[in-house]
Amino acid sequence: MAEDLHIVEQTLEQLGAETPERVAALFAEVRADFDRAFGSVTDEASWHALRDGWLGRKKGVLRLITENWLKPAGPALKPAAGQGLNELRAYVEGKKFGAFTASATLVAEKLDLSLPGVERALGTRHLVRQTLEEIERIFLRLGYAVVGGPEIETPYYNFEALNMPEFHPARDMWDTFYVDTPPGTPSQLVLRTHTSPMQIRVMERQQPPVRVIVPGKVYRRDNPDASHLFMFHQIEGLAVDHDITFADFKGTIEFFVHEFLGKNAKTRLRPSYFPFTEPSAEVDATCIVCSGRGCRTCKQTGWLEIMGAGMVDPAVYGFVKYDAKKVSGFAFGMGVDRLAILKYGIDDIQVLLQNDVRFLRQSP
Ligand code: PHE
């Protein structure tokens, strides 16, 4: 029994309890004492002591209350004593004394600080996202802004304003997904085949100087294989101002290649054709797999094509009401998924979309 709980050894009369309220107050005192004892239990032995002290047949607190309070109580206090005792018993037994006396619960609930921790598998950023962000950071340092745009476009932005009127053969450079639209829709819609339509949207809403990059998803009606996806990511770049030259273009690209692939990576420009740039170029960089010596990835050339680019064709300025005599600029577009697999030495681009956790977990 709780040593200092002397009140249960006296009768209600001896305790001077004359009203049911007083009796209830005494039960509250007893219950508080139980709570204190319950809170200070630390091991199996003290559990047993608590159990015996309260539920013991001969000298447990509940037994003593029955003998000393309930039995001798007169009719005025008997109901209060009976009710108080029932509630106290329910409370004490409700603490799962039985289970605790079997000691299993207490042992099970004990915290074993020596156990090894539970390892949590932390997620990582997808390789494509990491690559996008890495490229964004390089251009942010050069003062470029990052903007996003719609993946569903009108042919006007995807082709026409980029200097490709309807039936222009260059449209065939991009195998296009057309979106089914309800009759009456004002324009045909396409999934953008490149991020270049954002060149137009950006120039429509701001005057030079323009310095933006546009990361985003693009779609092409290609059959997926080791080097083709029907959805992939591009980063478009556009710089337009009053005195931008081809040298600025070259310098910017070289800076990017050095930052992205390392100081030893070289850059080379090959003449090419895009309807919206003139002159146009394909940009090659030293093959990162073989450092330029020649390997399977670069088809023994030592070079990898990393982007299409060029000086913005003056005809494009006409679509956005820029004065082609006063402004000049350059644009480029690169395939992020391809850069990611080259940089990380992956030989099949399709793993980027398969979401195999064994692959995803290898992301640095
Ligand atoms: N949009 C072109 C493509 O997807 C790349 C490009 C962008 C070329 C900007 C020139 C200027 O192939």
Layout: helices, strands, pairs:
Layout: H1 20-39, H2 44-55, H3 61-70, H4 78-94, H5 97-101, H6 104-109, H7 127-141, E1 145-146, E2 152-153, H8 155-158, E3 178-179, E4 189-191, H9 197-205, E5 210-219, E6 231-241, H10 246-261, E7 267-274, E8 277-286, E9 303-312, H11 314-319, E10 328-335, H12 336-343, H13 351-354, H14 357-360
Parallel strand pairs: 1-5
Antiparallel strand pairs: 2-4, 3-4, 5-6, 6-10, 7-8, 8-9, 9-10
The structure holds phenylalanine (PHE).
Q: What does this entry look like structurally?
A:
37% of the residues lie in helices and 18% in strands. By secondary structure, the chain is of the alpha+beta class. The chain has two domains: 2-110, no CATH class; 127-360, BirA Bifunctional Protein, domain 2 (2-Layer Sandwich). The model has no long low-confidence stretch (mean pLDDT 90). Residues 194, 196, 236, 274, 277, 308-310, 331-333 line the site of phenylalanine (PHE).
The residue-averaged pLDDT reads 90
Question: What is the CATH H-level superfamily of the largest domain?
Answer: Bira Bifunctional Protein, Domain 2
* Count of spatially separate domains: 2
Helix content: 25-40%
**Can you list the ligands bound to this structure?**
phenylalanine
Proportion of residues in extended strands: 15-25%
Helix and strand sequence:
HHHHHHHEEHEEHEEHEEEHEHHH
Number of strands: 10
Question: Major β-sheet, in short?
Answer: 7 strands, mixed
First-last Cα distance: 63 Å
